[in-house]
Design goal:
By secondary structure, the protein is of the alpha/beta class. 48% of the residues lie in helices and 10% in strands. Strand 2, helix 2 and strand 3 form a beta-alpha-beta unit. Helix 5 packs parallel to helix 7, helix 6 runs parallel beside helix 10 and helix 9 crosses helix 13. The radius of gyration is 20 Å and the shape is globular. It binds nicotinamide-adenine-dinucleotide.
């Protein structure tokens, strides 16, 4: 992927696969839900959400009038198999002919897991910046082990982005979820299977989020910042869908799975250190990040953005103990996967130490 923006190098060979989802974006687009369900021929959708968003889901159901859909409000983080089983049973009971996921990655994740077991399509209404609604990636937790995979059946058919629905997303959650989206873009920029189109989307998304997130923090009730963030989240989700993620996502997956850490906050903390680790091997990606952030150094710029957004300072603040990092480094370095810089156990352990302490990332050695 190096040299994509360098005219003397030309364009590297690539494969681009676009996802078929229909996207409806804009303030108030929730009012088009009835029309969109009709287009999908969904008459009895089951609405999925977390317990915290049960009232919102019921309001959405009520607004659909006569054909009031049922609500299953038990989605939780990391999609436990037991919850999937209960939701599938509810869908069968209510003779559901489609799934509406209202919420963040947890609600969407539940819909995705169900779509692997039932022949039902998904309409997603995202209310965070996680971007799961644009991907065919699913996750499941069973007995403390998180499994992820790709399956075209789980990709939502329609996504309704209404920035007004994100106004209630608390500022800290907005920040960590938005930085999660930035993380997808950073790794998309240096992905082994990246391409110029994805790089355009990723750079645009980082710019939109880096501008929108501080606006959201300053005034969580103002729409323009929310619009920019949701637009960035959409692009970030598309980028995540078409390329493979690397060291950063592997580290967060291991940290989340083995230490049960909050997903978005873990991403927000680890990102600058993963970028610093890969910087020497991904100069074009770092240049795109610098341009998007208006920063002199990509990793330092990402760290400054996180600090400005009030992200917890380091893994230490999430309750991680330094003694747990050796095993995380072992796991992250144990299986090979594409990463711009070779996976070096000692350097990864050092990266984790820096992420634990939370100071500005040191340039890679
Ligand atoms: P989440 O869905 O777990 O939501 C966090 C909390 O915020 C929940 O209590 C939820 O009810 C609440 N909430 C959501 N939107 C709100 C709003 N607008 N106002 C008030 N409260 C709101 O968080 P998330 O960060 O969106 O998703 C995290 C999960 O998504 C993780 O399990 C992660 O693995 C997964 N994920 C998957 C993909 C993928 O492509 N498969 C991509 C990104 C994240």
């Amino acid at each position: 992927m190096q040299g994509r923006r360098n005219p003397s190098v030309g364009i590297a060979a690539f494969i681009y696969r676009s996802a078929p989802a229909r996207v409806v974006f804009g303030e108030g687009s929730l009012r088009h839900l009835g029309r969109e369900l009709e287009m999908l021929r969904m008459k009895r959708p089951l609405i999925l959400c977390t317990p915290e968003q049960a009232d919102d889901a019921r309001a959405v159901a009520a607004a659909l009038g006569e054909a009031q859909p049922s609500v299953f409000a038990e989605a939780v983080m990391h999609v436990p198999v037991a919850v999937v089983g209960a939701a599938v049973a509810r869908a069968r009971e209510s003779d559901a002919d489609g799934l509406v996921a209202l919420g963040g990655g947890s609600a969407t994740g539940l819909a995705k897991a169900m779509a692997r077991e039932l022949p039902l399509r998904i309409l997603a209404i995202p209310t965070t910046y996680a971007g799961s609604e644009m991907t065919s990636i699913y996750g499941l937790t069973d007995g403390g082990e998180k499994r992820t995979g790709r399956d075209d059946r789980v990709l939502p058919a329609t996504v309704l982005y209404d920035p007004a629905l994100t106004l209630s997303l608390p500022a800290p959650l907005s920040a960590s979820s938005g930085l999660n989206a930035v993380a997808h873009c950073v790794e998309a920029l240096y992905a082994a299977d990246g391409n110029p189109v994805v790089s355009l989307m990723a750079e645009e998304a980082i710019g939109a989020l880096a501008r929108g997130l501080p606006e959201v923090l300053r005034d969580p009730g103002a729409l323009p910042g929310r619009e920019r963030c949701l637009y960035g989240a959409w692009l970030a989700g598309m980028a995540l869908n078409v390329v493979s993620m690397a060291l950063h996502h592997k580290l967060c997956h291991v940290l989340g799975g083995s230490l049960n850490l909050p997903h978005a906050q873990t991403h927000a903390i680890v990102l600058p250190y993963a970028a610093a680790y890969n910087a020497p091997a991904a100069p074009e990606a770092m240049a795109a990040i610098r341009r998007a952030l208006g920063a002199q150094d990509a990793a330092a710029g990402l760290h400054a953005l996180g600090r400005a957004l009030g992200v917890p300072k380091g893994l230490r603040e999430l309750g991680v103990r330094a003694s747990q990092l050796d095993r995380v480094a072992d796991l992250a370095a144990s299986q090979p996967y594409p990463n711009p810089r070779p996976l070096e156990r000692t350097a990864i352990r050092e990266l984790l130490q820096q992420a634990y302490e939370g100071d500005a990332p040191l340039p890679a050695q």
